[in-house]
Write a structure and sequence with these properties.
The complex is a heterodimer of chains A (99) and B (631). By secondary structure, chain A is mostly helical. Chain A has one domain: Helix Hairpins, CATH 1.10.287. Helices cover 78% and strands 0% of the residues of chain A. Chain A is elongated and about 50 Å long. The model of chain A has no long low-confidence stretch (mean pLDDT 91). Chain B is mainly α and 631 residues long. Among the domains of chain B are: 51 residues; 26 residues. In chain B, 72% of the residues lie in helices and 4% in strands. In chain B, strands 1-2-3 form a three-stranded mixed β-sheet. Classes of the chains: A mainly alpha (99), B mainly alpha (631).
Chain lengths: 99, 631
């Protein structure tokens, strides 16, 4: 099995996710981009696990999913709270915590 | 070497001698206003009990054989580190015995006198507390059996004198005098502490027994160094040249303080130190010679200052310096002189206390005016004060048969035994003593009344005159008693050693010459100050008089040699601190502050730029990893 295709796909997905985080303003979309990056890395883990014939990478992928789920719970709660108080989901507006 | 006897019987109460006044002072100083009423009487009673104990001990000691009179009372082990061990131990031998007697008996008389003298002072409780503290420290000084413990007493005496000189601390002059005394004493203390350190390095012990027992093992250079350091210490405490400047200013304290500290006891600590360390000075000829030279210089300085001061207490202070100079000379002469240094110290302690208390009595009558030019014709109004003052004066001048004659004559004789030059100096100084003491008596008690308008002289109360009378009796008979009945030479000989030298001049002739010189001095003083009118304002005077009024420029010399250079040094250090030390610290702080001020700007609060920097950082890490792998 040739892992390079999977790795290239993973890199592409990761790049799309990172670009999304950097250029999009809507918090929900940024959040989805973060999920995309996480899953890109999951794909790489699973591909390498398959290549080496052991389960380490699979296990890590599971952990990443669990962490991502937890992150979604907390992150969405924060976004909803911010939206309630500011009537906006833009991540550029909450900038009080600065110099 | 004497045998050390365990302290049994009354000698087991040795610690009580120190503990009583110490407890008295603690009660008075910590007890607060509660003790205002009965505190002074408690203080007096502790010293009186001490004096009675001391007399009892003397009687017991006289019952022992000459070689069995050193009693050692070991309380507990005080300092122990490796092989170094110092005990909290007291030693009573013939030398410390006479000191204990002097301190407790003269101290008791001065305490009693103070009851009258300080009766109107609102802080008299504090005063008596300090006096008790002083006596306790002085007793510790003379009873310690090692140098380290003695150092504790030595410092305690310095502290107590600071507190007492500055007792009227609301007067700026008193506060300054107290500080001056304390600081100059510190200079001497450095000498003592260094001497103790050298002893520890050389002998491995600081107890008298070990140090004196092993002087033979040390090189002469080491012993000379120890001797000179001890001399420095003695100069500080005994107001000897070049550390004499504090004594005259110390007269700012109440008069009983002047009598107790600066005449009878504290200034004698230096003489005690030298005499106690006789084994060291005997083995270090150079150090002993230095002691004599210092003594001669101070003897003349004190006498000259005493001649010119119009302040009765300062004139007496000059005379104290001069008389201590005599003792220091005798102590420096070696075994021919130690005994007589102590002999003169004892008689001087009595008659100088009498003179100071007499001066206090006069001041009491003249509303605390100390200027002798505003006294005069007081002899009819203050009969007891005049009589006792006259007796003490005759004693200090060395007129037979008063005490001072016997002790001073012994020193003159001892001085001629070792060097004619020193002998002639002591005779001349005796003449000057005759002059200034006659001047003092003439200006105070004879001539016309030159009082301030509101002065109403009167005799002091009995509580003040009775101590004066007792001291005058001592000033009359103590010399003969010690010499003929007490046999002071054989009494002290086991501790300090004694040998009789040979003098070319017959003894009686020498006595007659000394007496003649004293009488000439007294006659000049009498003609100048009793027969002629004494001007109320001081005349311009010649060069020497003006110099003596300025205390021979001792303060100015200190200013030029020590005070100004230390000011310069401290100003330089302040500048260095501000410009360089602070400059370095402040500029590095400013650099960090400025830098962080700039860095702060990157905290924009703009989340996407944080994300970008995180991404950039991650890429940097990856690139670095790849580069490391590839290389």
């Amino acid at each position: 099995m040739n892992p390079s295709n999977y790795i290239i796909l993973s890199a592409l997905l990761f790049g799309i996710g990172a670009t999304g985080v950097l250029v999009r303003r809507n918090a929900i979309v940024v959040f989805m981009s973060v999920e995309l990056m996480l899953n890109a890395s999951n794909l790489a883990f699973v591909a390498f696990a398959r290549m080496h014939g052991n389960l380490d990478g699979q296990v890590v992928a599971f952990f990443v999913m669990v962490v991502a789920a937890a992150e979604v719970v907390v992150g969405l709660a924060i976004i909803v709270q911010i939206f309630r108080s500011r009537r906006s989901a833009s991540i550029d507006e909450p900038n009080l915590l600065k110099y | 070497m004497q045998e050390l006897m365990p302290a049994t019987g009354v000698f087991s109460l040795l610690w009580l001698l120190i503990a009583l006044p110490l407890a008295g002072s603690a009660i008075l100083l910590l007890g607060g206003r509660m003790t205002n009423k009965w505190g002074p009487y408690l203080a007096v009673s502790t010293i009186v009990i001490d004096a009675l104990l001391a007399i009892w001990m003397l009687v017991e000691m006289m019952g022992q054989g000459a070689e069995e009179r050193t009693f050692n009372d070991n309380i507990y082990s005080w300092v122990f580190a490796g092989t170094f061990k110092v005990d909290m131990a007291f030693q009573l031998d013939q030398l410390s015995m006479v000191f204990v007697l002097l301190i407790t008996i003269v101290g008791a008389l001065i305490h009693i006198y103070s009851l009258g003298y300080m009766s109107h002072d609102p802080d008299r409780r504090k005063f008596f507390g300090f006096l008790n503290l002083f006596v306790a420290a002085m007793l510790l000084l003379v009873l310690a059996n090692n140098y380290l413990l003695m150092y504790v007493g030595w410092e305690g005496v310095g502290l107590a004198s600071y507190l007492l000189i500055g007792f009227w601390q609301y007067k700026p002059s008193a506060a300054a005098a107290a500080k001056k005394a304390f600081i100059i004493n510190r200079v001497g203390d450095v000498g003592l502490s260094l001497a103790i350190m050298v002893m520890f390095v050389t002998f491995g012990s600081v107890s008298f027994e070990d140090v004196f027992g092993s002087t033979g093992q040390a090189s002469e250079g080491t012993l000379t160094a120890i001797g000179l350091l001890l001399l420095l210490a003695a100069c500080g405490k005994s107001a000897q040249f070049p550390l004499q400047a504090w004594l005259l200013d110390a007269m700012e304290g109440p008069t009983p303080v002047s009598a107790l500290i600066h005449a009878a006891t504290m200034v004698t600590a230096g003489v005690y130190l030298i005499t106690r360390s006789n084994a060291i000075f005997d083995a270090a000829a150079w150090a002993a010679t230095a002691v004599v030279v210092i003594g001669v210089i101070t003897m003349f300085m004190g006498a000259i200052i005493g001649c010119a001061k119009d302040d009765i207490k300062k004139s007496l202070a000059g005379s104290t310096m001069s008389q201590i100079g005599y003792m220091v000379i005798a102590a420096g002469l070696g075994p021919v002189g130690y005994v007589f240094a102590i002999f003169h110290l004892l008689t001087h302690g009595v008659f100088k206390a009498g003179l100071f208390l007499g001066a206090g009595s006069v001041m009491h009558a003249m509303k605390d005016n100390v200027n002798m030019r505003r006294y005069g014709a007081l002899r009819a109004l203050m009969v007891v004060t005049f009589g006792t003052f006259l007796v003490c004066t005759l004693s200090i001048m060395g007129i037979p048969p008063f005490s001072g004659f016997w002790s001073k004559d012994s020193i003159v004789h001892a001085a001629f035994e070792s060097s004619n030059l020193v002998g002639i100096c002591t005779v001349l100084a005796a003449g000057i003593t005759g002059f200034y003491m006659t001047r003092m008596v003439a200006m105070t008690f004879y001539g016309k009344a030159r009082w301030e308008d509101d002065a109403h002289p009167h005799e002091s109360p009995a509580v003040m005159t009775i101590p004066l009378i007792i001291l005058a009796i001592g000033a009359t008979f103590l010399g003969m008693a010690l010499l003929f009945w007490g046999n002071i030479e054989t009494w002290l000989e086991p501790v300090v050693g004694f040998e009789e030298g040979h003098v070319a001049i017959p003894e009686l002739l020498l006595m007659a010459i000394t007496l003649a010189v004293v009488l000439i001095g007294a006659a000049i003083g009498w003609i100048q100050y009793a027969r002629r009118e004494v001007p109320v304002t001081e005349p311009h005077g010649n060069l020497l008089t003006r110099a003596a009024r300025a205390e021979l420029y001792g303060n100015e010399i200190n200013d030029v040699l020590v005070v100004h250079p230390s000011f310069w040094l401290s100003r330089f250090l302040v500048w260095f601190d501000n410009a360089w030390v602070d400059g370095f610290v402040n500029s590095s702080a400013a650099a960090v502050g400025g830098l962080s001020g700039r860095m702060r700007k990157y905290q924009t609060g703009f989340i996407r730029s944080y994300a970008l920097s995180m991404l950039g950082g991650a890429i940097l890490v990856v690139v670095a990893l790849v580069l490391v792998r590839l290389s």
